[in-house]
Each structure stands twice: as C-alpha cells, then as structure tokens.
C-alpha cells in the first residue's frame, strides 16, 4: 500500500529530475558572465536542461544547458565533444557554472524544427522523405558507430536548415529518462536507450511526416525499422542506404515566415513532454492518477457523458459478412474489406493463385505485391496455417489524388488490423510465429465487385 503524500511532495523515483529551469540560478548565471558569456532567453526544454541562447566571449551565438557535475548529461556531453558530423548538433565545450554545476555549450544553428513544419498539416513529398531518411539515418549511424545513441528522436529534435538539409539536436537525454512518448520503442517503456530504439523512433517520425498517404516503399522500409523485436530491426546505416528507393532526394521546404510562426503556435499547443520516466518508476504517479480517474468515472456514470461521433465510436455495428456474401456495389465496404482479408488469408494458406487474384484489381499495386508473395511462398516451399486477419475500428478517409484520378469512385478506409499467431512450415521444419501487434492501415478499394487497389 502506498503512503499518502501531499500534492506538493515530489515523486521519488530514484532518479533526480530537477524542476525545469531550477539549475539556471543566479550563481550559475554570474559564473558564466565572469567567463565572458552574455546570457540570453530560454529556448524551451525540461527537467533542468533548459537551453538558453547566449553569446560567447568571441561574440558567437551558442546554446548553453546547465546540469549537475557528474550526471548523465555531462558524461554524454564529454563523449560528444570529439564527435563532429554535419548532421549532429556540435558540443563545443564544457564550462564550470558554479561549485557543483557545469555548462554544456553547443553551436547555435539557424533552423526550423520538423515539428513546426508538420504542425501546419503539410506532409513531406517522397523526395523530401528520401532526404529525411538519408540524412537523419546517416547521422544516427555515425553516432552508433561511435558507441553513442540519441535517445529522443522526434520531429522537435530534427532541425531543417535553410538549405533543406537536416540536423539532429538535443542529444543529452539522461539514461534513466525516456524521449517523447509517441516515438518511444516498445522496449523503451522500461528504461534505457539503444541504437535499435533510435531506428524505431526515426521510423515513426517518417510515417508521421508522410501524412495520410505513406508511399508503399516507405511502408516497407519503416516496417523493418519498427519491428517489435529490437534484434530484428535494420541498422541506421542500412536504413540510410534504402533512402534511394523513395526517389531522388529533394531539399525539405520550410515554408514562409508567417506560416512557420503560425505552425509553431500550433506545435506548442499540442506538443507532448519530451522527457518522461519509465513505467517502472511511475508507480506512485499512477496511484494518484487512478484515484483521479475513479472520481471522473463516477461523475460520468452519474450524469451521463456525451461523446462526439467518430469512426472508432460508431454507434452502428459493422455488419458481418457470410461466407457466401457477394461483394457487389451494394455490399457495405467494411464488410467487403473483412471478406477480402479472409479470402486473402485462405489464398495464402491454400497457395491458391486464383483466389488471391480475386482479392485485388488487376494491374494494381496490391495485385503485383500479392502475386510476388505467392511466387516466393511457392519457391521456398512454405506452408502457413492458422492465419486469421481481423479488421475493425473503421474510419472513412480521403482517397489520395493520384489514386482518385486512376480509379474514379474508389473509397479509402482506415482500419485496425490484427493477425493471429500462425504456424510456418518450410522444407519440413515448422515454427510458431507470434501474433502481430495491432496496427492501423489504409485500404483503397473499388466496387462492382469490391477489389483492393492499394494498402498503406
């Protein structure tokens, strides 16, 4: 049983996380001023490592962060001192900032972070995605080959320079803290950073930067970067080498000044905290969150709750297709999608080319990919049993322009996809394949009869 504490008491986690800005006290400021630094305004930041834009004794613009002497940030900063790469923020020196503090000095870069660019709703074009993948993954590979990890890859920590190139910043994540929750790999929920974790986070950033339509080749690459098992993920160097598959690289466009200001305001309004503690260290926090949630739930039951309509709160259940359902234009497209998924499962297990061909529109991307899959299964003498794909949580979305013009009347639906555990037999040897984690995909299909043309 947890001992009750007052709200003003800090949560004890075993890791000292200073209050944001607490280390930038008068003593630290005066110590740096005596060394010739002019201290400027803050640039955001959390957990004590609040960066400030300053001028050094030579009049150069720099960024300074304060940390306690001997903590993880200083140790990592000292390891970064000899590191020099055009795609990585430079740590140029470490100065004393009082008897128990040090100042980590980095070179100031005139740039816009990727989060601000994406906040306006603009998706990167394939050539821009190629640039992002190539340059960010190359920078990560350089870090990893020097036995360093970033630990907090997110759009807010990727700068886009005036020439459209990218640079990674904010490399001083403490080992016991995690990066931005949305981009944290599954294993990272329990603490620690790794090269494989950096690759996973970059894969999530790429998917987000692509917007509603993710190019099929990028989907393939990010699926390799975001495998649940870290040991199965490709390396940063391999990911960078595959950037050419997305097309010729193009500079990332930053937009006009007025648009960037508006985007920055949006980004600040929705940005998640960029540092948090692992689950194992949040038990006390969760106890009090549970109490709050219980009170809210009790109120909701008592007075009733109104929730806006959305795809995942659809009050009408999706009809269930019978095994003999005819997938004509009158069939609910959600029913058609589940029926097509079931038919595809059967085709894979039975190695039935005709049944597989009936799932997709002839000549479409899906038709080509599925035909290639069947050829590989047969060539390797692979037999799969127990495969069951389930689709739910449907939401109608816009059809990408290039598909709408090619397939007039096409529909696009985003759905959660869950696949069962299976048994894979190859050349007489069988092994169990675990069920995949649920994921969301978008399906584009045409009617009369319903057939798939694209999945991303």
UniProtKB/TrEMBL annotation:
What Pfam families does its record include?
Answer: Pkinase
The record's SUPFAM superfamilies line, in alphabetical order, gives: Protein kinase-like (PK-like)
User: Could you say which EC number(s) this protein's record lists?
Assistant: 2.7.11.1
Q: Which GO terms describe its molecular function?
A: ATP binding; protein serine/threonine kinase activity
- Residue ranges of every copy of the Protein kinase domain listed in the record: 1-266
Boundaries of every KIND domain copy? 111-275
Keyword terms, alphabetized? ATP-binding, Kinase, Membrane, Nucleotide-binding, Repeat, Serine/threonine-protein kinase, Transferase, Transmembrane, Transmembrane helix
Has UniProt tagged this entry with the keyword Ubl conjugation? no
Q: Which InterPro entries match?
A: Kinase-like_dom_sf (IPR011009), KIND_dom (IPR011019), Prot_kinase_dom (IPR000719), Tyr_kinase_AS (IPR008266)
Q: Where are the transmembrane segments?
A: 287-307
Please verify whether the record's keywords include Nucleotide-binding: yes
Q: Which domain of life is it from?
A: Bacteria
Q: Which PANTHER family match?
A: MITOGEN-ACTIVATED PROTEIN KINASE KINASE KINASE 20-RELATED, SERINE_THREONINE-PROTEIN KINASE NEKL-3
Q: What is this protein called?
A: non-specific serine/threonine protein kinase
Q: Organism source for this protein?
A: Actinomyces graevenitzii F0530
